[in-house]
Write a structure and sequence with these properties.
By secondary structure, the chain is mostly beta strands. It has 1 helix and 12 strands; from the N terminus they run H-E-E-E-E-E-E-E-E-E-E-E-E. The longest helix is centred in the first third of the chain and has 5 residues, at about 5.
C-alpha cells in the first residue's frame, strides 16, 4: 500500500522533490605514539657530573606532540624529556619493571592530543600497561657546599 508513495517523488503545491536518502558513517581512529628511550649519557660523550633532580608540582596533562624522549630512572617512574629541554616525571601506579628491558614504550593518544594522569597508561613493548598516577616537574637541585 505504501510502496507506490515511497517510490514517487513528493509533490507539494505543484513542486516535486527528490527522495531523501539517509546514511551513517562512523570513522574510528587509533593513534599509538612510540616514545623512544634515551640513554642517560650518549656513548660518544664523557659522563657529566651527576645532576640531582628535585620534584615540584606538575601538570595534570602534557601534549603528546611535546614529548622528545624518555629515561627510565626508577622502578615506578619514567622521566619525560620535553621539546625545549624541560623534564617531567610520570609517576606510575605501581612498579612497572618491563619498561627497563625495552628501547621505549607506547602511548595511546587520546582524541585531545594529551596524555593525562589518572586517565592514560604507558604501554611497554611486552604488552604490560602502567597507569600514570601523576606528573611532577623536575628541576635541577642546587648543590650543597
Amino acid at each position: 500500500m505504501f510502496a507506490p508513495l515511497a517510490a514517487a517523488p513528493a509533490v507539494a503545491g505543484g513542486q516535486s522533490f527528490a527522495p531523501v536518502q539517509l546514511a551513517q558513517l562512523s570513522i574510528r581512529e587509533r593513534v599509538v605514539v612510540r616514545v623512544r628511550r634515551i640513554p642517560a649519557t650518549p656513548p660518544s660523550l664523557p659522563a657529566p657530573a651527576a645532576v640531582r633532580w628535585k620534584e615540584k608540582g606538575g601538570p595534570r596533562c602534557v601534549a603528546v606532540a611535546d614529548l622528545a624522549g624518555a629515561l627510565v630512572t626508577q622502578p615506578d617512574a619514567v622521566d619525560l624529556v620535553m621539546a625545549g629541554g624541560q623534564r617531567l616525571r610520570a609517576k606510575l601506579d605501581g612498579e612497572c619493571r618491563p619498561l627497563d628491558f625495552y628501547s621505549g614504550f607506547y602511548l595511546k593518544q587520546a582524541s585531545d592530543g594529551m596524555v593525562c594522569s589518572d586517565r592514560d597508561t604507558i604501554r611497554a613493548r611486552s604488552g604490560a600497561t602502567c597507569p600514570i598516577k601523576r606528573f611532577r616537574k623536575l628541576v635541577p637541585d642546587k648543590p650543597r657546599h
